[in-house]
Amino acid sequence: MPAGLSPFSVLGKGGACLAGLLSFGFVLVSRAEAAPAKAEPSQSAVQSVQGVLKTATLDQLAQACQAAIAQGNASSVTLLQQRLLALKPAPQPLAVVLANADGLLSCQAPDLALQVLARYSPAPGPDRTLWLAMQWRAASAGLDHQLAADALLQLAGGQPGALEARLLPVQEKEDGTVLSRSALDLLAGHLESLGLNREAAEVLLAGRPGGAPLAERYGRAVALLDALPIAQRQRLLELALDQAAAAGSWGLVAELLDQQLALDAGPGVAATKAMQRRFRLSGRIDDAYGEWLARHRDQLAQDPASQQRRSALERQLRSPRAAGGHAASPQPLTNPVSHP
Questions:
Q1: What's the count of helices (H) and strands (E) in the chain, helices before strands?
Q2: With 60 as the cut, is the pLDDT of residue 283 above it?
Q3: Short-list 282, 335, 339, CA closest to 312
Q4: In the chain, beta strands by DSSP E
Q5: E strands, 244-319, in order
Q6: If we measure between CA atoms, which residue out of 48, 119, 118, 39 comes closest to residue 82?
Q7: CA separation (Å) from 311 to 279, 280, 284, 300, 308?
Q8: What ranges do the domains of the chain cover?
Q9: Residues 131-148 pLDDT 10s
Q10: Is the model more confident about 173 or about 28?
């Protein structure tokens, strides 16, 4: 990033919006909608889980619930959810509360998990960090974006950039491995779902590490800041292009150049330079399809040579794996996005 230029300086006075938001706590209310009523369990379901309900531990109940979910037995799932909710009444140590909430999440009952978490209110410190992370999991699973964003903002302690290195689980794969994402990106996603696009963009711009991840965030922020003047959005995209090119992420560079062209589609010096850079990159990464799209959009290139090039690209697209085709093996590149 050029000296003296930060993403927040590009935003101007509005860049103080997030700081003010955080200084007031940005307390987000939870959903007012009531959870849908659950179906009454059948008598056969009551009998089939009777022994489990009487003697099972938290882990055993959670496993039984997962089995019932896999079998599509909604009545048994309902019984097991209610048992998990009532098994460990307050007061309980934090470890038990978190295990109970985790069991309810595995039993597809995020609203009940939030009820269990509400029984405990840890003081600031490591315990509260664990509690907030579990609250985020429950709120996110229940699509309660307001409560999920509130939990992450509290984890941030007023500094969204602090969420950069915090990874939170978002999916468990069939082999048992867990996919995680940066809490900073997750917070931006919740804010965007709430319609707070500018705040979401400011969170994305608070990220510190460079390279492809930062470039992706800049591109995403530009898409969210649709009310910002085009010149300022173009400056953010230039920062993103610098980061992506430095990391050698040429596919991302191509996406950012396409985004830049879409911002400045009319005639002008900026559009011409961006188009030239896109053509140059496409040729060097064998991206015939990308170049064809760019030339198709280019209203300035109506000369015979340009039309001939488009015809040649169309022939390549019919044979994508042939030499020069868009699916052929890429060749080594050298500085494909240098400014003209």
A1: 18, 2
A2: no
A3: 282
A4: 167-172, 178-182
A5: none
A6: 39
A7: 15, 18, 19, 17, 5
A8: 212-340
A9: 999 999 999 999 999 999
A10: 173
